[in-house]
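Obj.: predict assembly geometry.
Materials: sequence records (below).
Method: joint structure prediction, all chains together.
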Amino acid sequence: MANLSLKHIYKTYAGNVTAVKDFNLEIEDKEFIILVGPSGCGKTTTLRMIAGLEEITSGELLIGDRLVNDVAPKDRDIAMVFQNYALYPHMSVYDNMSFGLKLRKISKAEIDRRVKDAAKILDIEHLMDRKPKALSGGQRQRVAIGRAIVREPKVFLMDEPLSNLDAKLRVQMRTEISKLHKRLATTFVYVTHDQTEAMTMGTRIVVMKDGLVQQVGSPQFIYNYPVNIFVAGFIGSPQMNFIESRAMEKVGRVFIEFKGFILPLSHDRAQVVKEKGYVGKDIVIGIRPEDLYDDEIFLNGHPECIINAGVDVTELIGSETYLYLNISGVELTARVGAQSKAKPGDVISLSFDMSMVHIFDKETGQNIF
Ligand code: ATP
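Observations (raw structure tokens):
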């Protein structure tokens, strides 16, 4: 079993930088876990502690049922793929892939079997005699993954493995790594700062900021139920729109007011706002670009949630259009159909799907739902 347990893990570097604070996570066998967050949030440090390349300041790390805090990297049954691939330049692909196994005194026949099996999976059989400098970025990446596969580890650790590849190859390798995960049926822990990679590859995502875990959940769950403004803004592209507003009550209904505009809240959301005491208070509302419409659409029985918005810029992205809008100085992005007729300078009727609005506490940034 390759389940991992991280219990109250802290990492303080010399010089008193606490890079990871009270990290708790149970990783199930065969999960594909993604650690995601902006630069410096502590994801690489966490991965390196799992690998044994960085000492754990306090807390416990278990692989299976074994406490491994003080176990050497080579005895942890893990393999790590680095961002820069870390291939030996003077060795052929075959030797790069077999080197680690030779050191472990595994028989020649067994090494040959493992290298050939991995090469087949990764479609690099024809490159076995080449040196790394004679390979493309994508091919080097495969060799680096191959070197990890031949070790037949219980856990794969990957630190931004796609960041040196061009955009097209990155998309292709993304799918290949997902397929590889299914095929190998082992636990993967993968670090990235790219929310698209996190959304598309992980079975669960761990969103980090300033050394602290913000939220753990499936990509879909985190997208639909972000716990705070940070997660809401980090996951999703184009990012969620945020509007500083005030909650108010009028003739029994709850409205959101900003810049003199008034939007009615849907019944369930209004209830929560009332119950949690936000009526009359400043709040931040969040609405995803796909929940804004460039037309007067009758949404959820609330035809009145329509506001005139000025169009600053339009971007046609193949199958859809991004509209960059302005409502009295509040900038919003809407993601609408490719057939949208809106053009810069127009004033459009913008419909808000109020059943999709998130409401955040202005002080704490927490989602109040
Ligand atoms: P990136 O995406 O930029 O790699 P990250 O989320 O992986 O960022 P870490 O590399 O884990 O972040 O760094 C977390 C914090 O710890 C940062 O503030 C960083 O400057 C600090 N840090 C990392 N390594 C060391 C070190 N060896 N000594 C001191 N501080 C360090």
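Conclusions so far: The radius of gyration is 25 Å.
To do: check interface contacts against the pulldown list.
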